[in-house]
Amino acid sequence: MPEPNPYRPIKAEVLDVIPETPTIKTIRFRPDRPIAFRTGQFVELTIPGVGEAPFTPSSRPSVEDVLEVSVMRVGKVTERVHQLRTGDTIGIRGPFGNGYPLDQFKGKEVLVVGGGCGFAPLRSLMYSFFDLSGQLKKLYFRGGCRSPSEFLYRQEIESWTNRPDLQVELTVDKGDETWRGPVGVVTTILDSAKMDYANGIAVVCGPPIMMKFATLKILKMGFREENLYLSVERNMSCGIGKCGHCRLGIYYPCKDGPVFRYDTIRNAPEIWD
Amino acid sequence: MNLLSIRHEVYFPVKKQNQRFFSRYTGSTDEAILGEVRPFEPLKVFFSCARERVAEDFQSEIPLSSHKPFAILGVKACDLKGFLIQDYVFKNDGLQDPFYIRNREQNLIIGTDCTCAIDTCFCLALGVQPHPRENFDLNVSPIPGGFIVEAGAAKGRALLQEHASLFHHATQVDLQAREDQRARVREAVEQNLKTHDIPPQDQFPGIIEQNWASTVWQDEAGACVECGACTNICPTCHCFLLYDQKDDQRVARLRVWDSCLLKDYARMAGGANPRRFLWMRLRNRFDKKFDFFPKVANVYACTGCGRCIAACPGKIDIRRILRRLVNRA
Q1: Are A58 and A107 within one domain?
Q2: What CATH number should be reported for the domain holding residue A82?
């Protein structure tokens, strides 16, 4: 049942604020009523009286009463999100847009490529894959960050290396004494995934520059354009394709995305800007 | 107007110096001018307010309107075409906007034929005749010695029946007078198309894609001062900005019209801006009107009303840009 007033947020109580990196915090919150979302969909989070900003939940979609978003401090709203404390009231609208078409990934080999803040939506996607228990043919995760201290969910993602259903490799642009893995951008560790590229699925989420170069690399490796899924970052505001801000070609990422198959947006102008 | 004002808040065009404006009826019809051309304000001002409160605290109610439903007289065909875009965005595409629906459903739209054309009129290039043909409840055509009133939608027919004693059937002579006048105005607009060398819309397909890398955008954007007048005054532009406010007791979410020409329109929190240069934003305005809307809604988001030409302090002229795009120059 759609909310009769699509601009009104529902109340949510902040349960926990978890510092992740020097610039990222994860907010756990309990909305007034459960929010059923598909992984990859996003919500608008309101700081009452200040404004709202879009985030893709990083939590398990099967958990509808408590959600998590991981937020990088970059602007007016996110600054205030970082000041939240347990018990505070926030507002939530959504979920909006389309998530990942999980059914179409079943029986396939899937390569998930993440960078920086892009781990947040991808963590939710990975949980969904874990819940599919064995319905994927094989799962590969490739993650890159600027430095080990900025590695979002580092412990958790490193713990995935013990999972039998998943093959993980991680890299950083610049290492430190805690880092024993490879050093370099994420595109340098993609082709270590020995899979049937022509029939595989690739999912990329990260900063625009990383998405651009990962896309070029993935296509060069032999993945098909219709098997590549990108998360488009735009200034999404209303969430329902009315306010105009996020338009990309003939699409509104808030309504038609933010997850797009590459072949549907490849000709849209400005996709990497 | 007295009869209408029982159930409606009535607006009608008045003429002050050389401009026409919508004015609220409060008992006097001095300065009323039903015919001539479109008023200064676009019709959208009645349906998607320039500034309105869309949420308060966490209450779910849609705030009730504080006025009686609008009856708007003297609406011109170019503004009625604006409904095709506004309705597509707020009513027909995906989730409906309850504020727009509320204002739109309860109104009474009374169109009027244009009885002249001004220099900026170019509706015929966009497939719009200078007299209403759709999207009205009633249409009023001024003729010598009276008016011909025609019902469009059911609401209009009901109104005519209710007040049948005020009307008699139009004669052949009356109808011929209406036709003659319509032909005269059409001719005046056609003359504008010739004078300004304005291409018709059947030459528009592909003009944005083919001119994407053209220097026309930089050339034309040089005169833009980013005031947003062209988007505010446009009957099809619909973009808005949501922002939140707080006083001691309450928080409120408001929306105001926004403009894609403004620098921060597409800017993201981290600072990335897909359209960081003004010429990119000018190109975007044309992309939205002449590529996006024909692809998603099968209609060009321009009505030929010419308001943006008159409003632009930099003399940026949509007719000139269209001509340059069509000529690939």
Answers
A1: no
A2: 2.40.30.10
pLDDT digits (tens, 9 = 90+) for B231-269: 999 999 999 999 999 877 788 999 999 999 999 999 988
Q: Give the pLDDT mean for A151-177.
A: 93
CB contact under 8 A, B241 and A78: no
Answer whether residue A271 is part of any domain: no
In this predicted structure, the answer to whether residue A3 has a pLDDT above a threshold of 60 is no
Q: Do A52 and B267 touch (CB under 8 A)?
A: no
Q: Does A53 touch chain B (CB under 8 A)?
A: yes
φ/ψ (deg, to 5) at A70:
-110, 130
Nearest by Cα to A245 from A256, A235, A232: A235
Give the pTM.
0.93
Q: Of B82 and B3, which is predicted with more confidence?
A: B82
Q: Which of A45, A75, A95 is the last residue of a domain?
A: A95
Place of tokens 């808030």: A254
d(CA B240, CA B233): 14
Looking at the structure, do residues A184 and A150 belong to the same domain, yes or no? yes
Decide if pLDDT at A2 tops 50: no
Q: Give residue B103's pLDDT band: very low, low, confident or very high (50, 70, 90).
A: confident
Q: What is the DSSP string of B90-106?
A: IIISSS--HHHHHHHHT
State which residues form the domain around A224. 102-231
For residue B211, give how far its alpha carbon lies from the nearest alpha carbon of chain A (Å).
12
Largest CA distance in chain A: 54
Q: Is B279 exposed, middle or buried (0-12, 13-18, 19+ CB in 10 A)?
A: middle
Number of domains in chain A: 2
